[in-house]
Amino acid sequence: MTAPLKLVAVSAGLSVPSSTRLLADRLAGAVRTALEGRREVEVEVVELRGLARPIADHLVTGFPGPELRAALESVEAADGLIAVTPVFSASYSGLFKSFFDVLDREALTGTPVLIAATGGTARHSLALEHAVRPLFAHLRAVVVPTAVFAASEDWGPGGDAEGLGPRIARAGGELADLLAGRPPRPRTGPEVVPFEQQLAALRAG
């Protein structure tokens, strides 16, 4: 039996409740729906709001704390990624960028990624194409064609049916199609070399 795929959604929302987290949850739900009957999927959400200080500490010291390490390992082990940021100053948030700055540079190579963003007005939607998509292209991820932007009016009456809902379904379907034929990543941890063996190798050198 094929092991379930691991889908990780990274949300950089700062408020509680957060429209950024809401969008991440809806996108994950769309991927799960699109994979029904094809593959099982396990969804994990990484909230960056609670990791702001550990991320800053890592940028200064070069060492992640246990909470940040667990989040980074989850993203590194993901078969697919949903990345959602609020738009600040016409770009991704500093918290969002900082998290991916401390991620291993090879971690997302070949990983299917769905990008999304939230903002007060649709005028900020271009941030997905001029900032977020190039970031994941630099990390050598495989970014799905449809990026999803949710403005404030998209959450109001009628906004979802007219635009946001179909965009979420389309983007979720694109990510699901990339994941459907993908073998799950190995879930084994790093190889542990006994200390005696390491010491013997040093003496031999």
From TrEMBL:
Domain NADPH-dependent FMN reductase-like, first and last residues per copy: 6-155
Coiled-coil intervals, chain numbering: none
One Pfam family recorded for the sequence: FMN_red
Key words of the record: Flavoprotein, FMN, Oxidoreductase
PANTHER family reported for this sequence: FMN REDUCTASE (NADPH)
Protein name: FMN reductase
Organism annotation: Kitasatospora arboriphila
